[in-house]
Amino acid sequence: MTSARVRRLGFAAVKGTRHLARDAVTLAADGPVGDRAFCLVDPQSARVLRTVEHPTLTCVEATTGDGGELRLRWPDGREVVGPLKATDEAPLTVDYWGRPATARLLDGPHTAALAAYLGRPVRVAATQPGEVVWAGAVSVVTTGELDRLSERMTSVGLTAPIALDERFRATITLDAEQDPEPGTRLRVGTATIEVARRIDRCAVVDVDPATGRRDVPVLAHLDRHEGLLTFGVDARVVQPGRVEMGDPATPENPSH
Question: Would you say the pTM of this structure is higher than 0.90?
Answer without folding.
Answer: yes
